[in-house]
Amino acid sequence: MGQQKVNAKSNEITAIPELLKLLAIEGCLVSIDAMGCQTEIARMIIEQRGDYVLALKANQKNLYADVVQLFQLARQQDWQDIDHKFYQTINKGHGRIEIRRYWTMEQTEYLWGAEQWLGLKSIGLVESERRINNHTTLEHRYYLLSIQSDAQLFAQAVRSHWGIENQLHWVLDVSFQEDLVKGCEGYSAENLAVVRHLAVNLLTHESTAQCGIHAKRKKAGWDNQYLTQVLNSFSDST
Q1: What is the pLDDT, as a whole number, of residue 179?
Q2: pLDDT class for 43, splitting at 50, 70, 90?
Q3: Do strands 85-93 and 96-105 pair parallel, antiparallel, or not at all (unpaired)?
Q4: Which bin fits 23, alpha (ψ -120 to 50), beta or left (φ > 0)?
Q5: Whole-number average pLDDT of the chain
Q6: How far apart are the C-alpha atoms of 174 and 51, rounded to whole Å?
Q7: 96 touches 105 (CB < 8 A)
Q8: Is residue 98 within 8 Å of 125, Cβ to Cβ?
Q9: pLDDT value at position 165?
Q10: Within 13 A of 48's CA, how many CA atoms are on the CB side?
Q11: Given the DSSP bridges, would you call strands 29-32 and 51-56 parallel, antiparallel or unpaired?
């Protein structure tokens, strides 16, 4: 939907507000990684009549510790007399089982610095359990939410966020080896990034070849007829 270049001597924290200014997010639920978990970014989303799901990590030291402690106490008490919502998904395949548990609750008024987070209404916890053979791993992730406590909607937002990561960033990293590209003089990096995004869109829309993006890219390099088909695929589908 939009893209904003990060200045060479800066990071995503300064680029995200500029990107938000370009987007029409009214009525949308915006999910951002921990880098973007900032009070000013939360304020911008709310003022543009959107809602947020912000990943919370130790860069928000005191607030993060408060949220972690609150969920730990709730779980130790088995959620007795604590208003909350719960949702769970189980996925099986490729020799592994993945169980994701989602909790949300609205006890935010006594969190450290809660008054600085415009629109803050609830907090969320994701517990990801992965079982491979006899080996089990657990991962916990915490979030600030501007929506009412709703574990299923929270789960949808978190999974959709990682869907973008997997569908776009993974393709660019693996199929196009973007991280290995050395072009950085002038506007070369920015221009090449635009070309790669165009290529991903074209290859995704081309549906006759029953294979992945990486294989389609190779096929287009070997077969001019297929390359022409790829270049025409977007106009054919619209």
Answers
A1: 65
A2: very high
A3: antiparallel
A4: beta
A5: 85
A6: 32
A7: no
A8: no
A9: 60
A10: 22
A11: parallel
Span 116-145, average pLDDT: 95
Q: 40: which 2 tokens?
A: 């000013």
pLDDT at 144: 97
What pLDDT, on the 0 to 100 scale, is given for residue 169?
61
Burial 140-151 (b: 16+ CB within 10 A, else e): eebbbbbbebbb
Distance, CA of 18 to CA of 40 (rounded, Å): 12
Contact 222, 216 (CB under 8 A): no
The larger pLDDT score, comparing residue 214 to residue 79, is at 79
More confident call, 27 vs 198? 27
- Whose tokens are 């939410």? That residue is 145
**Greater model confidence, 14 or 140:** 140
Nearest to 168 by CA among 129, 196, 136: 196
pLDDT at 49 over 90: yes
Question: What is the rounded CA–CA span in Å between residue 124 and residue 152?
Answer: 11
Q: What is the rounded CA–CA span in Å between residue 136 and residue 146?
A: 33
Burial class (CB in 10 A: 0-12, 13-18, 19+), 214: middle
Sheet bearing 135-145, strands edge to edge: 29-32, 51-56, 135-145, 122-132, 96-105, 85-93
